[in-house]
Structures are given as C-alpha cells and as structure tokens.
Design goal:
Length: 218
C-alpha cells in the first residue's frame, strides 16, 4: 500500500510539473509538539516533545486556486514511551536493555518530502485562506534515545528505527499578501503516521504532531 500511494503521488507530481501553470515557492519554520501512538497496552505514550521542522515548498498551480505541492525539508519528531515490560534497542551493533517501568525519550530526525494538494479561496483584501492535504514520505537520518533513570543518554538507535516512514497531513491557514507575489503564511497543521516507526518490539508505533506553520511565499 505504501508503494502504491507513493507511486501515485510521484506520477501526479510529474504530470503537474509538466503542465502549464504558475509556480510559487515558500520557505517555512514550524514549531511543533510531537508524540507517539501505540497499538499495544504494554507500550504507552507518556509525553510529547517540543520540536521543529523547516524546509522549502513548491506550489504548482494547475488551476487558478488549485495547486499540487511538493516540499523538501528536515522534520524533527519524537516523543516519550512508557514500557511496562523490558525492551531493547540496537546502538552501533550493541544491545541496550531498558528495565520494565521505564520511560524512554526518543528524538527522531527525518528528511521530509511532503506531497499533496492546496485549495485556496479568492483573495479577500490582502488575505487568502487555504486548505492543504497530503502525504509525508520521510527518510530517517537520526534517532536518539534517553532513559528516565539516566542509564542511557542520547544513545544512537538508528538501527532500531525503520528507514522509511509514511504519514499524512492536513492544514488550514492564511496567506497575507505583502506586495506583488510575496506573502506571509500562517497555519495549523496536523500530521499522523501510517507506518511503524521502530523495529525493536511487536507493537506498531506511529508518530503524531501538531505544528504552527510559519513561512514566506515568493
């Protein structure tokens, strides 16, 4: 299913890029709260972490108020998981054992390549409202784990984290035109994972986040 979704989006992106239309670019920095979801009772979300993502986005308009979006950036995610049973992570070929009843803080860093659609209203004064929906194929480039008892501190656990992760996002926001094609962007974005993050246990761990989208459109 993951391969099918990504293939469809890539084909759609190719078609949109080859077609006629206006192309706009934006840069953004998004402060966010991220946390984990688990489908097993013995692994529970304990707390969120405050992180940020930043990157570039291209809006390729195939109609006046409809655009295909393609982005590239760095997304810092993670959370705190409470393990009622013992668990382990692989770090540089060694096994790190965590005792039962521990909370493990995990910070994950990804290359994020969001793909989707943006729907905009007509400009009202200097303001345009928009809705953006899409998928987030991500490639892991960093993973650190810290135990709450201080036994482990920022240990590299990339070997226990799946390289590829797929999620989806939904955002509502506004563009405030400063002049010409330049505008300030503000929005609220919800992101949720569709695939398992870690490979160290039998649970399906997904990432969720809510962020404030701040950017400049050119």
């Amino acid at each position: 299913m993951t391969r099918i979704v990504v293939s469809i989006l890539l084909v759609s992106a190719t078609i949109a890029l080859k077609g006629q239309g206006v192309t706009k670019f934006s840069v953004h920095v998004d402060p966010q709260f991220a946390w984990f979801g688990s489908d097993e009772n013995h692994i529970q979300n304990s707390a969120s972490v405050f992180q940020a993502q930043y990157g570039l986005q291209m809006d390729r308009y195939f109609e006046k108020n409809y655009a295909f979006i393609l982005g590239f950036g760095v997304n810092n995610l993670g959370g705190n998981l409470f393990y009622t049973d013992s668990t382990s992570f692989i770090s540089k070929g060694d096994t790190l054992w965590f005792e039962p009843g521990q909370t493990v803080k995990q910070k994950l860093q990804y290359l994020d390549i969001p793909l989707g659609l943006k729907l905009k209203t007509e400009e009202l004064g200097y303001v345009t409202l928009f809705l953006q929906l899409g998928f987030n194929p991500m490639i892991n480039i960093g993973a650190l784990a810290t135990s709450d008892d201080g036994t482990y501190d920022k240990e590299n656990i990339r070997e226990s984290v799946h390289v590829f992760n797929l999620g989806y996002h939904a955002e509502i926001g506004i563009e405030y035109r400063l002049g010409g094609s330049t505008a300030l962007i503000g929005g609220v974005r919800w992101t949720s994972g569709l695939t398992d993050v870690t490979s160290n246990d039998d649970a399906t761990i997904t990432i969720k986040a809510i962020s404030i989208h701040l950017g400049v459109l050119f």
